[in-house]
Design brief:
The complex is a heterodimer of chains A (277) and B (251). With 277 residues, chain A is mainly α. Chain A has 9 helices and no strands. Chain A is flat. Chain B folds into 2 domains: 168 residues, 3-Layer(aba) Sandwich (Rossmann fold); 61 residues. Chain B has 8 helices and 10 strands. In chain B, the strands form 2 sheets. In chain B, strands 6-7-8-3-9-10 form a 6-stranded mixed β-sheet, sandwiched between helices. In chain B, a hairpin with a 2-residue loop joins strand 4 and strand 5. The radius of gyration of chain B is 18 Å and the shape is globular. The chains are: A mainly alpha (277), B alpha/beta (251).
């Protein structure tokens, strides 16, 4: 009897676990489907209404670049310097001991250019601009401003989403490039302070030799995709369905979680790309 | 006054904004150029949903809805955008100004978006003129959150009139306003109609209300919403003479 009861309880737990996991998976697929549809609609508007209302849209794109990009430069300078110091600090001692000082450049390229730089910048932009976009658009939706735009025959996707997508994609690309340059220079400064026998010419040549053409292509593609994903997810959460003002904090939290997951998944895809080439 | 309808509803089912709940059924209504309609009911009877449907902001749940002679279901996106450019809409309770723009930027937005040919100077003059007529010149650089509901509603009217508006939809514009402000609105609307009283430029107004009295001098046609139906009462004389309880309540 006792064995049967235990077995039945295990079955119940198992079923509950499968239900919960299955439910989450179905919800995840549903959200992913809606996000892809939203991204396709946005892309469609970008193409079909290219150059429409430049007088309104262009300043908004610039405003977004300033807010997400130029506004973040002090923070990126600080993080770039810290990243350079940390990576060189951790690796110099190790590589010197192993007599492999010629690998400082490749380490910088592999860690900063390919992985940490783009991802760290994307997360910074998400924290600073992505969340504010979700809050702004969620509030606009809750206050009925989207209907007001429609009553003025203004396409909400063109007016609210497209500038954010272009602005954030540009900002993430530019900021990542800036972060990489800062980290590289600060990395050398730290190596110099540590009296590592490495001249600037050798250091930068090591980095130059370690860089391949696909690093530039993937860096551009990856950062632009990160920016676009952050913008799409945050705009989707803010706009896609009717909201009340009390829902705004909830959708912002969802937007952050989904953006991080999206960026990490895209990073994994690019990693596979690196391995395949 | 032309007999050709600008907007025509035939057997239309009006849905709430969520697109699920049915608010009104079998609505038959025609809007001719130059008319001024006051559509009244007690609160919560679906005036806002009906007005949004009449302005093509809500999709009807059934029936035929025609704008400028073209059925909604046959219209392309471009045609629908063109209709909306010919229509202005003032929302209830503060007018839903865009919170990230100043009052002047809100008023300028439809022109900046739709009329790239207008120079910055002309645009500035037009916006300044609209703000001056609405007595909002001193609030041009204010953010909407700083405005009272009264001023926000006026700014919303200025925004709705920024383009060449042929049909002006007003969602309960006098709701919550004092008698002085309500008088300002009716006087302003009368002036607008007198300025554009002839031919193709005649301004047509459709307003919802929960009190017919302020509209008796201005409106030319009246209707009431009751029991899930919209019922046309007629002109001023018919409304004033009506003994129906639903009409008397609004007087």
């Amino acid at each position: 009897m006792a064995t049967e009861a235990t077995s039945s309880r295990v079955e119940d737990w198992g079923r509950a676990f499968v239900d919960a996991t299955g439910g989450r998976f179905v919800r995840f697929v549903g959200v992913l489907e809606e996000l892809v549809a939203f991204a396709i609609i946005t892309l469609g508007v970008m193409i079909s209404k290219f150059g429409h209302s430049k007088r309104v849209i262009r300043p908004m794109i610039w405003e977004e670049i300033v807010r997400a990009g130029i506004g973040l430069m002090p923070m990126v300078t600080f993080l770039g310097a810290a990243l350079g110091l940390v990576i060189i600090g951790q690796t110099v001692a190790l590589l010197t001991k192993a007599g492999m000082i010629q690998f400082i450049g490749p380490v910088m390229v592999t860690v900063v250019v390919r992985e940490v730089g783009p991802l760290l910048t994307a997360i910074l932009v998400l924290a600073r601009s992505g969340t504010s976009n979700a809050i702004e658009l969620g509030t606009a939706r809750a206050l009925g401003e989207i209907e007001a735009l429609e009553s003025l025959a203004i396409d909400p996707i063109l007016y609210l989403v497209v500038p954010r997508v272009i602005g954030l994609a540009t900002a993430v690309f530019c900021l990542t490039t800036y972060l990489i340059l800062t980290a590289t220079v600060c990395g050398y400064l730290f190596a110099f302070l540590q009296e590592v026998p490495l001249t600037p010419t050798v250091y930068f040549r090591q980095i130059g030799d370690a860089l391949r053409w696909e690093d530039f292509a993937f860096l551009a593609l990856k950062t632009v995709t990160f920016g676009a994903v952050i913008a799409i997810v945050n705009c989707y959460q803010g706009l896609a369905r009717p909201l009340k003002i009390e829902d705004v904090s909830r959708v912002t939290t969802s937007a952050v979680a989904q953006s991080v997951i999206g960026c990490v998944l895209i990073d994994a895809l690019f990693l596979i790309g690196y391995l395949l080439i | 006054m032309s007999a050709e309808p600008l907007i025509e509803m035939a057997g239309v089912t009006v849905q709430a904004g969520d697109g699920v709940a049915v608010v009104l059924r079998d609505v038959d209504w025609r809007l001719a150029r130059g008319e001024c309609w006051a559509v009244g009911s007690a609160p919560g009877h679906g005036k806002t949903s009906w007005l949004a449907t009449a302005a093509s902001l809500n999709r009807p749940g059934g029936g035929t809805l025609r704008f400028f002679g073209r059925a909604l279901e046959d219209a392309t996106e471009r045609e629908q955008v063109d209709w909306r450019r010919r229509m202005g809409y003032v929302f209830e309770n503060g007018g839903r100004l865009l919170s990230h723009l100043t009052v002047a930027q809100n008023v300028a937005l439809p022109l900046r978006y739709h009329a790239p040919e207008i120079s910055d100077e002309d645009l500035g003059e037009r916006v300044a003129g609209l703000l001056a007529r609405s007595q909002l010149t001193g609030h041009a650089l204010a953010m909407p959150s700083r405005l009272s509901q009264r001023l926000a509603q006026r700014a919303s009217l200025a925004r709705a009139l920024a383009t060449r508006t042929e049909v002006l939809f007003l969602d309960n514009p006098l709701s919550g306003l004092g008698p002085h402000e309500a008088r300002w609105w009716t006087d302003y609307l009368r002036e607008l109609r007198q300025e554009n009283s002839a031919g193709a430029d005649a301004l047509t107004i459709v307003a919802t209300c929960d009190d017919f009295r302020p509209w008796l001098e201005l409106a030319t046609r009246f209707a009431v919403i009751e029991n899930d139906r919209l019922r046309v009462i007629g002109g001023r004389q018919e409304v004033s003479a009506s003994q129906e309880p639903s009409v008397r309540e609004l007087l």
